[in-house]
Design goal:
5-stranded mixed β-sheet; DctP_fam; D-Maltodextrin-Binding Protein, domain 2; C4-dicarboxylate ABC transporter; 14 helices
Length: 329
């Protein structure tokens, strides 16, 4: 892919552009340091430091949606108005429906399965679609998730009936609606306020966000993803193709190599948060429950008959991606 990308018309102006100014990395998560805090923020800092060492590129990191609104990041990448973003891929589903496969309930049920996407047919097809839209995945990052609730824990689908729940994607919303819930749509950095005011009863989000956004302060129960989960979210570090095209070949190689190296760190950190979130909520006095295989299957069965069918019917690309992803089940 690198060779093909490097042959674009912008290539000739790369050396001059690449040395001027810092590349901007935006994300919605709380800021920290290279060694402390939300691992997604740490990853961007580790990435920037290592790429800088290898290539001389300079970076500026904007945590907490401090550069632009959370839901504006993907569009900005496509236009070349933003260089890098680490963001849940499905947040862009409104403009590129294919990316909703990044948070498809029941489709990915382990970190190993998610990691296999990158070099499999589904990963290559997703990368092709994103490239056409002006975006390149630098680091493939998967996260399991759980459910924080102001009341009783949501374990079985029937537990969601009558509650106002944030699913996080069109497809998650479909399974919640099938279970009898009313869905609430907002990015993860707005969950706390909605739960605090009672505008929302429960929220599905990654283990890391369950910790970083301090949702234990507004929750009485947690369904964790530490053992089993019925959804895993693709939350990649991405670069604008316009930015990538302007880098020298050596800089491109550094960006992609370091991005790949960050993936194992991300998986290890996500697993630690899957375990650590339970302790955080227990300490705050919340009830913590885990899922078993039978419960995961109940949610997966609902997803097959609702979210998966809806997604496949969106367009031919969606249908193809779903078929390719199912090969890894």
């Amino acid at each position: 892919m690198l060779g093909a990308l490097a042959s674009t018309p912008f290539w000739s102006m790369s050396s001059v552009w690449a040395q001027s100014g810092a590349l901007k990395i935006s994300h919605q998560f709380p800021g920290g340091t290279i060694s402390e805090g939300d691992f997604r923020d740490r990853l961007t800092r580790m990435f920037a430091a290592e790429v800088g060492k290898r290539s001389g590129l300079k970076f500026e990191i904007y945590p907490g949606s401090s550069l632009m609104k959370t839901n504006s990041q993907f569009s900005a990448l496509r236009k070349g108005a933003l260089d890098f973003s680490l963001v849940p891929l499905n947040y862009a589903g409104g403009e590129v429906p294919e990316v909703n496969i990044g948070l498809m309930p029941g489709l990915v049920t382990s970190y190993e399965q998610g990691a296999a996407w990158k070099n499999s047919e589904v990963g290559k097809e997703l990368s092709r679609i994103l490239l056409e839209k002006g975006v390149i995945i630098v680091s493939w990052i998967w996260q399991a998730g759980g459910v924080a609730s102001r009341g009783k824990p949501i374990i079985d689908p029937s537990d969601a009936k009558g509650l106002k729940v944030r699913g996080g994607s069109r497809e998650m919303d479909l399974i919640l609606k099938e279970a009898g819930a009313a869905v609430v749509t907002l990015p993860s950095n707005e969950i706390y306020a909605a739960m605090q005011t009672g505008a929302m009863d429960a929220a599905m989000t990654s283990s890391t966000s369950l910790i970083s956004f301090r949702l234990e302060e507004v929750s009485k129960s947690l369904t964790s993803g530490r053992d089993k989960a019925y959804w895993y979210m693709l939350e990649p570090l991405m670069i604008s193709k316009a930015t990538f095209d302007r880098l020298t070949k050596e800089q491109q190689v550094a960006v992609m190599a370091v991005g790949a190296e960050m993936e194992q760190f991300a998986t290890n950190a996500a697993r630690l948060d899957d375990s650590g979130v339970a302790a955080v909520y227990q300490k705050a006095g919340a009830k913590v429950v885990d899922l078993n295989a039978a419960t995961v299957k109940k949610w997966q069965d609902i997803a097959r008959n609702t979210a998966w069918k809806d997604y496949a019917a969106r367009n031919d690309n969606c249908a193809k991606l779903l078929k390719l992803a199912e090969k890894l089940l």
